[in-house]
Amino acid sequence: MPSINSPIGARPARFRRPRVLIVGCGDVGMRAAQILRGRVQLVAVTSTPDRRPALRAAGLVPVVADLDVPASLRRLAGVATRVMHLAPPASVEGAHWWRDARTTALVRALRLRSLPDAFVYGSTSGVYGDCGGALVNETRGVRPHTPRAHRRVDAERAVRWLGRAGVATRILRIPGIYAADRKGGTPRERLHKGTPVLRAEDDVYTNHIHADDLARACVAALWRGGTQRTFNVSDDSGILMGDYVDLAADLYGLPRPKRIAREEAQAQLPLSLLSFMGESRRLDNTRLKRELRVRLRHPTVATGLRA
Question: Per-residue DSSP letters for 128-183?
């Protein structure tokens, strides 16, 4: 139970609704909050005091804390019965480039008082590394190839630490997120720039999830799924990256991008984009549907982009 010094106060148990703490309340976190609004008491962490009015207007109780300042996280201990952690790791250089200090600090802070009943962490499907286009389920071992993916693996380890303490932890491995009303959420800008894609024989499988379906999966995981459980949160597309961009071009009435060989791509494209072109896998979402009981409203990128 929160102390009297809790930023959101304390009430007798019989008058309290379940409290959900959202850490990393960006686009997906706000979509999840709208699903939960009115059903639970919502608490959101923000490191920007000026954002408090907007969070209150959306029905959330803001708590100012900074994941990069561990001492500020102590006030989060005991304020919620369920936690949704969607904040990305910070970029780190030097000897500890593979660590996610943010998630470690959050987990340590939550352990200072009564633990939450459930903890949902938004990870990335990049932890699997390159799978050569194979169909991948959650039993496959992690083989991260990028610093970003290594930090997510470290965050997953910290989350499992909570699981061993008795918290129902659920790790969501998330691929590319898209939505028309999400900044950078469609290939439209890439198409306007004329960025080329790989030719068919060099192309890679890419995976996607609509932002609204991801938010629904995050909410479902707060109450469903076993403890220490991992879920691939992906749609049914199983589509090559070039075909995805071509599909978007046709829907937007824009020219399809030029197809180039991998050798040309390495000379022309930025490293950030090449990192996605270096990994190929198809995510098996059976567990998402069976255990979290999520029915995708946008089962493929074709239906999602049209919507």
Answer: G---TT-EE-TTSPP---SHHHHHHHHHHHHHHHHHHTT-EEEEEEE-EEE-TTST
Residue 270, domain member (yes or no)? no
Q: Is the dihedral of CA 190, 191, 194, 200 positive or negative?
A: positive
pLDDT for 272 equals: 80
- The 3-class secondary structure across 87-134, one letter per residue, is CCCCCCCCCCCCCCHHHHHHHHHHCCCCCCCEEEEEEEHHHHCCCCCC
Closest Cα to residue 29, out of 121, 137, 135?
Answer: 121
In a domain, 113, yes or no: yes
Residues near 66 by beta carbon (within 8 Å), at least 6 away in sequence: 47, 72, 73
pLDDT, tens digit, for every residue of 122-149?
999 999 999 999 999 999 999 999 999 9
**The pair of three-digit structure tokens given for residue 25, joined into one six-digit string:** 């309340």
Q: For residue 194, give the nearest of 157, 233, 249 by alpha carbon.
A: 249
Kindly state whether residue 216 falls inside one of the protein's structural domains.
Answer: yes
Work out how many domains the chain is built from and give that number.
1
What angle do helix axes 211-223 and 27-36 make, rounded to 10 degrees?
60
Confidence at residue 16, expressed as pLDDT on a 0 to 100 scale: 62
Which neighbouring-strand residues pair with 232? 173
Q: Which stretches in the chain have pLDDT values below 70?
A: 1-16
Domain of residue 170, residue span: 13-178+208-236+284-297
Give the predicted TM-score (pTM) of the model: 0.92
Q: State the CATH number of the domain containing residue 172.
A: 3.40.50.720
Chain mean position to CA 158: 16
CA distances from 94 to 90, 91, 126, 156, 220 (A): 13, 10, 22, 21, 38
Q: Report strand pairing: 208-210 vs 176-178.
A: parallel
Non-local (6+) Cβ contacts of 299 within 8 A are 235, 236
